[in-house]
Amino acid sequence: MKLSDLTYDFPEELIATSPSRPTRVMFVDEKGQPQEITVSDLIHKIPAGDVLVLNDTKVLKRRVFAGDLEILFLEELPNGTQKVLFPSKKYKVGDEITLPNGAKMKLSEKGLPQLVEVTPRLTEADFEKFGELPLPPYIQKAREERHNVQADESWYQTAWAEKPGSFAAPTASLHFSDADLAKLQAKGVKVEKITLHVGLGTFLPVKVENLDNHKMHAEVYDIPETVWADIQKAKVSGNKVWALGTTVTRTLETAARTQKLSGASELLLQEGSQFLIVDRLMTNFHQPESTLLALVSGFSSLANVKKNYAWAIERKFKLFSYGDLSVWLK
Question: Which sign, positive or negative, has the C-alpha torsion 262, 61, 285, 185?
Answer without folding.
Answer: positive
